[in-house]
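Supplementary Text 2. Reproducibility record for the structural model of the 126-residue chain.

All settings were left at their defaults, and a single model was retained for analysis rather than an ensemble. We include the record here because the model underlies the residue-level annotations in Supplementary Table 4.
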Amino acid sequence: MRGILPGPATVTQADLDYEGSVTIDSNLLRAADILPYEKVAVWNVTRGTRLETYALEGDAGSGVICINGAAAHLNKPGDLVILATFAEVEAHEAANWKPTVVFVDEKNRIVPGRTEEIPGPARRVA
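Retained model, structure tokens:
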């Protein structure tokens, strides 16, 4: 995995009248090391759906996560999603590979200081 927003992030818009993609606040794109037009996995925590699309750059600081095109049938405003990109690395690189992880709050603002995921069994939710 190259970059991930495991937040989960909140879908702010869903636009059926667009060809496809996910529009992401440019601050989040940069922080998660996601490039415009890069393939992005969208894992919907709310509905359990999964899809792949590509990233478009949204306005900086807007918090926008807009699911465009046919994918808007599977993701609605208010849904929680995880966005991820992937990288292929050589076997010797994989042992030390760490993705860029960006956590966000309910308004899709970056949560400072938190950069690592905690595996399910070790995670304690209050």
